[in-house]
Amino acid sequence: MNPPSLQSSPTSSSSAPPPVPVVHDSIPVEDRNAATLFGMPLKYISLITLAVQNAALTIIMHTSRTTIDPSRQYSAASAVFVNELLKGSISFVIALYRVDSQPKRAGSSASSWSRIWRDIFSSDCWKLSIPAILYVFQNNLQYVAATNLDTATFQVTYQMKILTTAVFSVLLLGRQLTRMRWLALVLLALGVGIVQIQSTASNDGHGHEHHEMHPFVGFMAVTAACFTSGLAGVYFEMVLKNSQADLWVRNVQLSLFSLLPALLPAVVDVHAAGESFPFGLFRNFGFWAWATVWTQVLGGLITAIVIKHADNILKGFATSLSIIISFIASVALFHFRVTPSFVLGAGIVLGATWLYNQP
Ligand code: C5P
Questions:
Q1: What three-state secondary structure class fits 37?
Q2: How do residues 286-315 score in pLDDT, each as one tens digit?
Q3: May I ask which residue range the UniProt record assigns to the signal sequence (predicted)?
Q4: Which of 241, 255, 307, 341 could form a disulfide with 198 if both were Cys (CB 3.0 to 4.6 A apart)?
Q5: Is pTM beyond 0.85 here?
Q6: Per-residue buried b or exposed e for 192-225, using 16+ beta carbons within 10 Å of the residue's own CB
């Protein structure tokens, strides 16, 4: 598969400026819409894929953490580290391919390797260290949440990130929100509150045969993850919009800065298990662990494509779609008990998401 952004319509090249060494990310809105993959608008492919990926991740992660005996459990910290390693490597290959396919500036003899090296270690690369550390926290917290909450409750509660994203957008980007959007955010908080109360009351501690769930711990983890999601997302947006660097180069920088903070807890886990580094990282890494890691890798890459070819508003829609997918899967796979208050709470969250996304 070619890197998706290379599939943009010819309209983008007909009026393109003279070739420059850095691959620019400033695709006009009409050309973003025109980007296609196998003839379908990439914008919609990425959004649908993100919705399915979001639902799949919560289900796969929950299964991987709750159906295996705790003594044979893989390390979540190792999974987060391996995720960053794989995502960074894939982003690097795409970034290199994109630099390779860009015409060189006249008179420049720099090789693709030296150009990509210069792009990645640019003077402002340190800016990615902030979202990188926040995302490492968030990705670890997701495991705590998935271990202690059923998939439907996790998915609904995680919608609170729309609220944190809005607040950080107002604080950091100076965005103004309409009264309708503030109302939608209040409704969102209300809906999540209803789901939390019913979940604590009716599903408390009823995990799989190997596993006891602690909803309060799960809610605390989701709340913190919503905070980091909002802050990291808005910060990433700020860095992306204030520079001309390629999205895939930014992704490589994000992964590079994630490696050390992701590795430290993983090494602690390896030592606690009495294993040696680095092979101990993969202790108990079976099918479900790899499935979780690869689904997360896919999610990180699609998130990048969604930011580029769609926008955060449409990303909100994709996430709300994933609530419905997770909900149906929870009932079918985990015999999740549907109560009227869950339906009410989830309905309010979906309605609030719809209201928030109104033009
Ligand atoms: O829940 P949320 O939308 O905040 O999750 C974003 C996920 O996508 C995180 O796991 C983060 O590590 C990943 N991501 C990424 N590359 C980006 C932005 C986010 O891998 N450029």
A1: strand
A2: 999 999 999 999 999 998 888 677 666 567
A3: none
A4: 341
A5: no
A6: bebbbebbeeebeeebeeebebbbeebbebbbbb
